[in-house]
Amino acid sequence: MKDLLIVKRYAEAFMQFANETIGLEQAVHEFKNLKIIMRNNPELGQILDSLDVSSIEKSQLIDKILTDGFSREIIQFLKLLLEKKRIDKIIDIADYVRIAYAHLGETDALLKTSFPLDLELIKEIEERFEDKLNKKIRFYIDLDGDLLGGVQVIIGNTVYDGSVRRNLDNLKEKLLTAKV
Question: What is the pTM of this model?
């Protein structure tokens, strides 16, 4: 659990920085290429993680190997990981970046409805949520007869419930708690 937190913090910090410098798309591309290099050359990871090799030699090795196709930012990031003795997390960081930024700013959302919706209505709902959340949203649609009507949108851990089922449940709760 602690390792996952470390991986996430380093990855998110770098991606925030990359967003302002080289761009998210370039950063994701470089992490993919870096992972390929690390996977195809396991001895590289062993050298970078070795206590027998000095930090200067490791830094020079990074400069030598990552000359073509890698930005100065990713090279500096690797050197930071070396300095902080976190270079062993580079594959996990690359995996995290690939998964978290695969859609480059798009957020997945589940649109539940009790009956099929017109494409125009789906687009309108999508646009409203994009405006409200200020991010690009990609909807997946699920037909759910339990809703009775209306829609329910689930984005991450947040549920926006505009279903008839929810409104009836709220009304029932109010009626049960009302004093006569």
Answer: 0.58
